[in-house]
Design brief:
The chain is α/β, with parallel strands linked by helices. It has 2 domains: about 1-125, Nucleotidyltransferase, domain 5, CATH 3.30.420; about 175-355, 2-Layer Sandwich (Nucleotidyltransferase, domain 5), CATH 3.30.420.40. The chain has helices spanning about 20-25, 45-60, 85-95, 100-115, 135-140, 145, 160-170, 225-235, 240-245, 250-255, 260-270, 275-295, 305-310, 315-320, 335, 360-375; strands at about 1-10, 10-20, 30-40, 65-70, 80, 120-125, 180-185, 190-195, 200-205, 300-305, 345, 350-355. Strands 3-2-1-4-6-5 form a 6-stranded mixed beta sheet, sandwiched between helices.
Length: about 375
Amino acid sequence: MKILVLNAGSSSLKYALYETSPEAAASDADQMITEGLIERVTSMADALKTAFDHLSPILKGDSITGVGHRVVHGGSFPGAMIIDAAVEHAIDELSALAPLHNPRSLAAYRAARVHFPDAIHVAVFDTAFHQTMPREAYAYAIPPRYLEKKLRRYGFHGISHRSVALRLAKLQGKKTEDLRIISCHLGNGCSVCAVDRGRSVDTSMGFTPLEGLVMGARSGDMDASALLYLISHEGEDPAALLKMLNNESGILAISGVSNDMRDVIAAADSGNERARFAVDAFCYRAKKFIGAYIAAMNGADALIFTAGIGEHSASIRAGICAGLNNLGIAIDPALNGVKSTAARLIGNSPIAVWVVPTEEQLLIARDTMTCVTASLS
């Protein structure tokens, strides 16, 4: 069956068309027919029309059976869901927790429903993979009445973390149930995940994607009292503070150069001390979470780097792994320096270190196909 994957960003739309089936997925024989990226999107309806104009001659009259939509915040949904009125309403309500993402996903869904009215539309949630976290990992230490208001840690990048864990297991001829994996998704947004035998047991992001690591323009962990102090004593506006934490912080704020790690590394290598500080802070925060997750799982079998920085920056990988020898992590400088788009081993230490490109779109296609197959059976 033909499955269209839509990934709506804050100002972009990625799409990919797959031919897949349960048998193809089981044998890794799915075929990506085409993909595209539309940037500077102002109208999701117009962007979908552009995508549809590209797809029409490729489809040659064939119908699209399912459309998979990446949705960042799915609350407590435990897996992919066919979008009906109730699911659409839930995604809309969760927009308050992911205002840069969920509204765009809904806009893409509503536009796609017009273009593909006969297709089954499926929401694939970034949060779903982390629903296996134990209570001690997802619950904040606050009165229960707030937990009842769904104030808890959800985690994000779940599609990516699940993708690389599955891919590494296949590369090693094993099942994910055989492995304890620490996955580092490092891009403009960053998170670390402890995957214990196929299940997410902890992750660095929390109630929103703001918690955890130092990121491109997000602060990561910060004492909530500091923000309350700024509001009550300095007269700061809460909305302005939220914007500052999400859009004006992280390596952008520390370096004073950019939110793009490539630019920051170049500045650091040229002697810019603020840029060097930003790189060091970025690596230090990731290093802390890796150590914590080794403790949480009582060891680990593999450490994975993925996403833009994780896949392409040898110096960041080296900086994060430096000093972790006593925990069983060491990279081979020669292997780490190889430029490649393939999955590869870069450290044959007791905890093996890998670079594994994420395949989020393929996983969304497969999850969509599974939901469609179940609904048609």
